[in-house]
UniProtKB/TrEMBL annotation:
Pfam families documented for this protein: AAA_17
Organism listed in the record: Haloferax chudinovii
InterPro entries in the cross-refs: P-loop_NTPase
Protein name as it appears in the record: AAA family ATPase
Gene3D superfamilies recorded: P-loop containing nucleotide triphosphate hydrolases
Length: 189
């Protein structure tokens, strides 16, 4: 059994990593989906209220609220799969929650890229307003870093520098799933 978590700033490539995992048959638990679902339960628009609800959940249920809500989904997938991907950790507290639950079977991968590269990718993606507005992106980054994302990135077991071509990145991700985290080093990424 292995649970692989991802952390990274917006536009770093976490979504692409999750897509490659899905295509390889690896189940993906997306922590942002927990927040989007809570937005819908509260009658709010996930595109505009995501950050507000992420903050509210942490205030109401603790800093590890999103991780705690994700754990049962991960555990269900582990009943019939050897590997599960948890997409989008945001803090060291969430990292601690997963490491407490899965011990050495939990591996955190930090996906990293320079701000300009990420901003360009987000502009192409155009998923929400913060993707097209550089100032909104900076504000979103500050909010995520305030959650403790920098701590989680610093404590990652594996760092993938996603600065090359999409094909190179996909090759690195495939290596991660086929050969394991130990096969992916910073020199390879």
């Amino acid at each position: 059994m292995r649970v692989i978590g991802t952390v990274g700033l917006p536009g770093s490539g976490k979504g692409e990593l999750a897509e490659v995992a899905r295509n390889a048959g690896v189940p993906v638990v997306t922590m942002g989906d927990v927040i989007r679902e809570e937005c819908r339960k509260r009658g709010l628009d996930p595109a505009t209220d995501h950050g507000k609800i992420a903050t509210a959940l942490r205030e109401e249920e603790g800093d590890d609220a999103i991780a705690a809500r994700s754990l049962p989904m991960v555990e269900r997938h582990l009943e019939s799969n050897d590997v599960v991907l948890v997409d989008g950790l945001r803090s060291g507290v969430e990292l601690d929650r997963f490491r407490e639950a899965f011990g050495d079977d939990f591996v955190l991968v930090s996906v990293e890229a320079p701000f300009e590269t990420r901003a360009e990718r987000l502009l192409d993606r155009d998923r929400d307003d913060s993707d097209t507005d550089v100032e909104a992106l900076k504000k979103r980054e500050r909010r995520e870093l305030d959650f403790g994302m920098g701590d989680a990135m610093d404590r990652a077991d594996v760092v993938i520098q996603n600065t090359g071509t999409l094909a190179d990145y996909r090759e690195t991700i495939t290596k991660l799933f086929e050969e394991g985290p130990e096969a992916v080093t910073e020199a390879d990424a």
